[in-house]
Write a structure and sequence with these properties.
With 245 residues, this protein is an all-alpha fold. The chain has two domains: 1-90, no CATH class; 118-245, no CATH class. 68% of the residues lie in helices and 0% in strands. It contains ten helices and no strands. The longest helix has 24 residues, at 92-115. The radius of gyration is 19 Å and the shape is globular. It starts with a helix and ends with a helix. The relative contact order is 0.10. Bound molecules: zinc ion.
């Protein structure tokens, strides 16, 4: 089962890297992948996640143009998320649902980081699957969704859609459905902002981004949500201790 989940994660990761390169450009997501430089179609052997990247030494076989490090990174991260989902639940259906939800968060984060867009093509499935996952676990509560939507909806209204997009609101609803209660959503938003502040200040200090430049927010939301899922029992203990429920 462990191996099955790693393989599942690699396969979805490979499909995910295709989505990252095709969704923002509005390209079709079906059809064989090819080298973006010389347009050579990839053979089945060149489509094996991670292994073909290592085998080709990170270069296109035809034109020798480097293949982005993003592809194997997404594949490896996706495999780790599916594996962690399996370790957390040890039950195939719940673990597969969680794996898919985390995979969608990963892809949404990458697309936003590179193109500053959040696709509803991924957002809506995330919301639906997160609701299913929470229902299956018996932790579904409307509170997390309401808080997420209210929190980002208010910012959206106050900034008249300038400071964040409607995609962020739907993403927040999906994350709310994933974590469940409003208390956990508070913890999740706290993590999102701490992680966001740490990464944004690092990017500023190292000169990777300039002051006033737009920094995508979905990657922080994805990392915060993933952390909330895996530290859920700690967070629940904290909530019980300090909010007294
Ligand atoms: Zn090529």
């Amino acid at each position: 089962m462990t191996i099955l989940f790693v393989v599942l994660g690699l396969v979805f990761g490979s499909f995910g890297s295709v989505l990252v390169t095709r969704i923002p450009g509005g390209k079709t997501i079906v059809g064989r992948s090819g080298c973006p430089h010389c347009h050579k179609t990839l053979t089945p052997l060149e489509l094996i996640p991670v292994i073909s990247y290592l085998f080709l030494r990170g270069r296109c076989k035809e034109c020798k143009v480097p293949i982005g490090w993003m592809y194997p990174t997404i594949e490896i991260l996706s495999a780790l998320l599916f594996l962690a989902a399996w370790q957390l639940h040890g039950e195939p259906i719940t673990a597969a649902l969680l794996g898919l939800v985390l995979w969608l968060l990963l892809i949404i984060g990458f697309i936003d980081a590179y193109t500053q867009t959040i696709s509803d093509l991924l957002n809506i499935p995330l919301l639906v699957l997160a609701v299913l996952y929470s229902m299956l676990l018996g932790q579904f509560e409307i509170g997390g969704i309401v808080l997420g939507v209210a929190f980002f909806g208010a910012q959206w209204l106050l900034s008249r859609g300038k400071c964040l997009g409607s995609g962020d609101i739907i993403l927040a609803a999906g994350i709310g459905a994933l974590v469940g209660s409003w208390e956990r959503m508070v913890a999740c938003l706290f993590l999102v902002y701490v992680i966001g502040a740490l990464i944004a200040s690092t990017l500023l200090l190292t000169g990777r981004v300039k002051r006033g430049q737009y920094i995508a927010f979905a990657p922080f939301m994805a990392i915060g949500a993933i952390a909330t899922v895996f530290f859920q029992s700690r967070i629940d203990q904290f909530i019980a201790l300090y909010i007294g429920i």
